[in-house]
Amino acid sequence: MKMEILSSGPEPESEATPEPESEATPEAETEPDTEAEDEAGPEAAAEPAPAPAPAPVPAQVAPTPAPASTPAPKPTARPAPDPVPAALRIAALDLPAAPARLGNALASEWTKIRTVQSTMWTLVSMFGLILGIGLMADAYAAGQMESSGYLALGLGGFIVGQIPVVTLGVLAVTSEYGTGMIRTTLTAYPRRAELLTAKAVVFFGLAFVLGTAAVGLQVLFSSAILDGHNQAPDGGAVLLAVLGGGLYLALIGLFSLAVGTLLRHSAGAIAVMLGLLLLPFILALFLPDGAGVNLLTFSPINMSAALFGEGSGNLGGWGLLGVLAAGTAAVLGGAYAALLHRDA
Amino acid sequence: MIEAQGLTKRYGPHTAVEDLSFSVRPGLVTGFLGPNGAGKSTTMRMVLGLDEPTSGQVTVAGYRYRDLPNAPRTVGALLDAKSVHGGRSAHNHLLCLAQLAGLPRERVDTVLDIVGLREAAHRRSREFSLGMGQRLGIAAALLGDPQVLLFDEPVNGLDPEGIHWVRNLMRRLAAEGRTVFVSSHLMSEIAVTADHLIVIGRGRLLADLSTKAFIDRHSTGFARVRTPDGEDAAEQRERLGAALRRIGGEVEQEPDGALRIHGVPLPRISDLAWEEKVRLYELSPHQATLEEAYMQLTHDAVEYRSNASGGVGDQYDAELLGAAELDGVAV
Asked: What is the pTM of this model?
């Protein structure tokens, strides 16, 4: 056991034993040799061809063991490092030197979100729920004699469709914490506030565009199925449902992203978000009138309903969206503070 | 160049790192050695600005990490192997990081080639073996062609070929004038790679010296001498021992009856035995191993220790303990 450990130590026996370092080196050095050639380019050509020579002996191999009594010399000048042929250099001569900016972080976050499967699954679920439940409601309404405006038919799918959006928002951050990726990310980009901004912008943009598309498609289907049968909604109501719906989904997702940043734990953050989506509405039923009505008005379910012309309270759809935006901004502020001041 | 001054990190009542000061110089491989739980990873996280020190500070290239003007082009790090989203392919993982650093897409293929992962580039990193995970981490560290590199336990999970490759890589990076800071809990690993050693235990600095100095200081040679077993075995041993002491040798009795002799060259021992008419059955040169020296150094600083005695015998252990106090490495 001792002898193995000592393979490069200064004991006399090492001369008899073949140095393990030198044995294996030729193969190992030829491998990077070839690939490094194209990076090093002209420099490599100018150098004499680096023969795959036996490995240079490790610098710390000392020739003789010092007698016990001799005080160990404090070597100030250490042996020069092994000469390295230019072709082996890992250096990239042509990399840009400019520091990374927010734009780089945005590109990176976009790559991140589009290269994990959970993004695809949550977005497909969102489309499936909004359109699927919407179509079922349309089909049901088409069979009824009594008819009112058809926008409200999208509400059920819209409420359930928030769950995958919330999940995606949470995962955008917590998957980095869960896997340890966050440490790699923060090492590569230590400006944490900018990083969270990039995450938030990319997520918000994606959720807004696809959320608007999903709700828009749903309204389109409803009108195609029910036009003539039901009373057509006015333009303002459609705008509120489609654009407001997309905005709502993006905001509630951003809220989730902020909660995920605060909690750093996928299951915990998703549980909190589901509670926030559902509990206020349920709790309001058990509260005394004044408090109950207020809670009901500002519950996410009522906010959603307001976008489809069914909400209670006198703020209206856009007003309630403003409230949601303010709440999201507040939680996001907390997320910035936490990310900046916490150990990663 | 990495410089730490009075670096301290406390988690509640637990002190992970205490008053650590050291510097890691360019052009060398600096080994960062300590038993598990000694505070190596905590220190590395503080260097990288991931954890904020409770007190003290650490700078990289003269800046606190978070203030570095261009961190990814200055510093590359391999953290614990799986600091990677397992659902992303190796290529996409590196692409995220390249974009984050403002590097061209082609650089991803270059580093994949350097670490030999080109073939596996489009497999999800969750499916990677530990060794491939390490290679991916090293690829990420090399992306920005940084002047300062930190590797936390880079050889964990690597096969012998991989270990050899990592060693060569680190030496090569250092030879190119970069600062290479490598943590390990294995002395045997670090001794063949590092030019300089920083040893910590329980979050405190135990030693900061060149590997050569460490070897010179701690692995002094000795001779083992065995005399015949028999009726007068003890008497013969005593006679030889006394003669050796007379000429300044240091003689210790080993548990199995052999003698361990410091400070007398082998031929001189043989001559002396001849003169004293003591027959020798064994006269062999030995070296206290670096591993032993390291264990001696960190003996008191081991956080978790099994009660059963391992490779190093209890008796020898106790012997080392005694020596450790006197022979402690200057800090």
From this structure: 0.76
- The sign of the CA dihedral A242, A243, A248, A251 is positive
> What CA–CA distance (Å, rounded) separates B71 from A289?
57
Our CA-based measurement puts residue B127 at a distance from the nearest CA of chain A, in whole angstroms, of: 14
Q: Are residues B141 and B115 in the same domain?
A: yes
Looking up tokens 């106790």 gives B318
Q: Is B284 on the interface with A (CB under 8 A)?
A: no
State the total domains in chain B.
2
Same-domain status, B181 and B234 = no
Q: Is A102 on the interface with B (CB under 8 A)?
A: no
Residues of B in contact with A122 (CB under 8 A): none
Q: Cβ of A95 and B104 within 8 Å?
A: yes
How many Cβ atoms sit within 10 Å of the Cβ of residue B38?
Answer: 26
Residue type, position B81, single letter:
A
The Cα A205–Cα A199 span in angstroms is 10
Q: Which residues pair with B59 in a beta bridge?
A: B3, B64
DSSP secondary structure string, A75-106?
-SSPPPPPP--GGG----TT---SPP-HHHHH
Q: Does B126 touch chain A (CB under 8 A)?
A: no
Cα–Cα dist B199/B149, whole Å: 18
For B70-123, write each residue's pLDDT tens digit.
999 999 999 875 788 888 999 999 999 999 999 999 999 999 999 999 999 999
Candidates B84, B96, B222: best to mutate against A (most CBs of A within 10 A) is B96
ipTM: 0.77
Q: Are residues B135 and B162 in the same domain?
A: yes
